[in-house]
Amino acid sequence: FPPVAAAWWPLLPSSKRVVELLLSGELVDAKSALEAGIVNRVVPDATLQEETEKTLKSLAKSSAVVLAHTKRALSVPLRQIFLKSLEEIERLYLGELMRTHDAEEGLKAFLEKRKPQWRDA
Fold first, then answer.
1. Alpha-carbon gap, residue 62 to 10, rounded angstroms
2. pLDDT of residue 97
3. Cα 26–98–85 angle (5° rounding)?
4. pLDDT at res. 79
5. CB distance 86 to 3 below 8 Å
6. Where are the chain's structural domains?
7. CB atoms within 10 A of CB 101
8. Residue 52 phi, psi dihedral angles, 5° rounding
9. What's the rounded Cα separation, in Å, for the pair 27 and 29?
10. What is the pTM of this model?
């Protein structure tokens, strides 16, 4: 599992879908990321520049210093929760999971492009 995603998922609005993505190993395309609340918006490549400029123009109507402080203020609780969670998840991932046969087998199978042979129960 991706440790950073595991620390971040509870902070997302549709965390059940994120849990499904983490457990299934499913690759996340733009539509899935949008549905899971990982991204706010998806636009076609052809309109990316135009959509970016519209967003920037909208933001430019506000005070830059107010926007910067708002962004900082909003990130404080999330950052604290994230960092605390990440420490525990790192311990679990590196200290426990990565010491198992299945973790080693999963990595080897991925590199060798074959199906893993799971052993740990």
1. 30
2. 93
3. 75
4. 83
5. yes
6. 3-61
7. 11
8. -65, -45
9. 6
10. 0.47
Task: Write the single-letter amino acid at 59.
Answer: L
Q: Answer for the pair 17, 35: CB distance below 8 angstroms, yes or no.
A: yes
DSSP 29-86: -HHHHHHTTSSS----GGGHHHHHHHHHHHHHTS-HHHHHHHHHHHHHHHHHHHHHHH
Please tell me the distance from the alpha carbon of residue 78 to that of residue 86, in angstroms, as a whole number.
12
Residue 82 structure tokens: 């994230």
Residue 4's contacts (CB-CB under 8 Å, 6 or more residues apart) are 86
Give residue 1's pLDDT: 54
Measured between alpha carbons, how far is 2 from 75 in angstroms, rounded to an integer? 22
User: pLDDT tens per residue, the chain (121 residues)?
Assistant: 566 666 666 666 666 777 787 788 888 889 888 887 788 899 999 999 999 999 999 999 999 998 898 888 877 877 888 888 889 999 999 999 999 999 999 999 999 999 999 997 6
Structure tokens at 89: 């998840």
Output Rg (C-alpha) for the chain, integer angstroms. Answer: 19
